[in-house]
Amino acid sequence: MGKVGIIGVGQSAFVRQYPGSIRELAFEGFKNAMKDAQITVKDVDASVVCSAPEYDKQRSPAGVFAEYLGLNPQPTFYVESLCSSSSMGLRLAYSLVKSGLHDVVAVIGFQKMSEISSSESQERMGRGADIQWESPFGTMMPAYYAMYARAHMAAYGTTPEDLARIRVKSATYGQLNELAVYRKPVTFEMFADPNDRMAGPVASPLRVGDCCANADGSSCIIVASEEKARALSQKPVWILGLGAASTSVNLAGRNLFTGLTVAQEAAKQAYAMAGIEPKDIDVAEVHDCFTIAELMAYENLGFAAPGEGKDLIRSKETYKEGRIPVNVDGGLLSKGHPIGATGGSQIRTIVLQLRGEAGAIQVKDPEIGLVHNIGGVGLYGNVTILGR
Amino acid sequence: MGKKIEIDDRFKKFGTVSFTAITKTNDFIDHLEQGKVVGTRCKECGMHFFPPRADCFRCLESHMEWFEVAGNGKLVTYSKLEYGPVGFEKDLPYRIALLDYGDYKVFGRIDDAVPDDALSMGMKMKTRVNRLADGQLNYVFQPA
């Protein structure tokens, strides 16, 4: 059985309010990935559509997209794991290709969050938690991650300033990313000024600057068998390792509050499958829906020991020139987080890095890259390792 | 005329906004009415469940008994919300928290009467039933 490769990547700009319908939004990521792969719709054997459905008025978007994108009569279906939907889509595409069922599969992620208000959106996001036992208390994603942040601070001496360091790094690169929703500079002075929006309270100890923004966007990854990848692509990137895990939806069922067990578990699987160790990773994209999420990812992926994530950012080792560059495309904090499109955007960044086509954010000669994509508050975890 | 089917939707009384009306753990609400916060324990294997559940995945049986969340738990972590989801605006600001009772953990709110500076990580707290102004029921954590 041969390898499975990625031969095309694309995303739309991530924007506050996309001026079009969801099928038109999906076209943007798809078009870019297809042009990148230099293939036509006849080359695509199946499509997997990934999003969080509660934002959509359209039932079953997969069928609508397949028609609009010219992918009939090939099979198409929908996959959902909240914010990690398109990494889960990639996992499915891998298995479809590896099994020999299909040769080329398009993984299409999208989300148009702007159709509902921000507070309605928070309410829907909160319902990604346990709606029977926790949502009646008024839960929200920032508050859940804030509970992890407080536990991490209490256990290890991580500070709000450490979290601000993550956001400042993100903005350093977000300014360079033309597809990012937030492209303004962010400084430590902004976090220190109680009147600045960045320092505004959301859910203690997290502040406005610790949170990513909602956005509309789409992404697309074209996955192919080794034979097809070698025939169609000059620079295929190979899927070396895949990991995925789940845990208790309610916090009461968990035992760790200073990290995400799904990330630990998915990373362990992905490293084992790829036959590598954390030190072998040259560049990484991690799921920084909140600053604390990136800091915990450093530890859960083995880039730092438990409690030492703060030291990694204090010493700037996760900057582009550092020991392990993380989110040098601006991450979710700068790009925005159109739920179903996010994983595909992370994968796109790593593929471009491995091809040496990342432009201003290119890391020096990376051979192996990692994508960490989390669904819900550490409910689902996907880790994907890619190599040249 | 068919006989009208009675729907047991007691659970809609849980919390500021309940998203669930019908569950096999509806008796939880009756216990709250009587001032008790309860979880379930599997009669077969003795495993404690909080939040309560009707079914045991270990035994693949549904033989549960109620136990009262009594004594003190330790404050594992918490957050104070300055923004809330739709339907919770009037409660703001409020604090959500997790207590560790050893055999199980309890997720809920910290009593609004407890000032922020009275909270410390790891402190002992107790769980008390709380009746909201509109008659809805939840439970809150208070210093032990």
**What is the number of beta strands of chain A?**
11
Order of helices and strands of chain B: HEEEEEEEE
The CATH H-level superfamily of the domain at 4-116 and 214-232 in chain A is Thiolase/Chalcone synthase
Total DSSP helices of chain B:
1
Low-confidence stretches of chain B: none
Number of domains of chain B: 2
Largest beta sheet: strand ordering of chain A:
3-2-4-7-1-8-11-10-9
Topology, number of strands of chain B: 8
Shape of chain B: globular
For the record, the CATH class of the domain at 4-116 and 214-232 in chain A is: Alpha Beta
What is the H/E string of chain A? EHEHEHEHHHHEEEHEHEHHHHEE
**Rg of chain B, alpha carbons:** 17 Å
Would you identify the regions of chain A where 5 or more consecutive residues have pLDDT less than 50?
Answer: none
- How do the strands line up in the largest sheet of chain B? 4-5-6-8-7
**What count of helical segments of chain A does DSSP give?**
13
Question: How many strands, what sense, and barrel or not for the largest sheet of chain A?
Answer: 9 strands, mixed
* CATH fold annotation of the domain at 4-116 and 214-232 in chain A: Peroxisomal Thiolase, Chain A, domain 1
How far apart are the first and last residues' alpha carbons of chain B, in Å?
56 Å
Decide which structural class fits the backbone of chain B.
mainly beta
**Average predicted local confidence, pLDDT of chain B:** 95
SSE inventory with pairings:
The complex is a heterodimer of chains A (388) and B (144).
Chain A: E1 4-11, H1 22-37, E2 46-50, H2 61-68, E3 76-79, H3 85-98, E4 104-112, H4 118-126, H5 141-156, H6 160-174, H7 188-192, E5 201-203, E6 206-207, E7 216-225, H8 226-232, E8 237-246, H9 261-274, E9 283-285, H10 291-300, H11 309-314, H12 331-335, H13 339-355, E10 368-375, E11 380-387
Parallel strand pairs in A: 2-3, 2-4, 9-10
Antiparallel strand pairs in A: 1-7, 1-8, 4-7, 5-6, 8-11, 10-11
Helix pairs in contact in A: 1-2, 3-13, 6-10
Chain B: H1 27-33, E1 38-42, E2 48-49, E3 64-68, E4 73-81, E5 94-100, E6 105-110, E7 124-131, E8 137-143
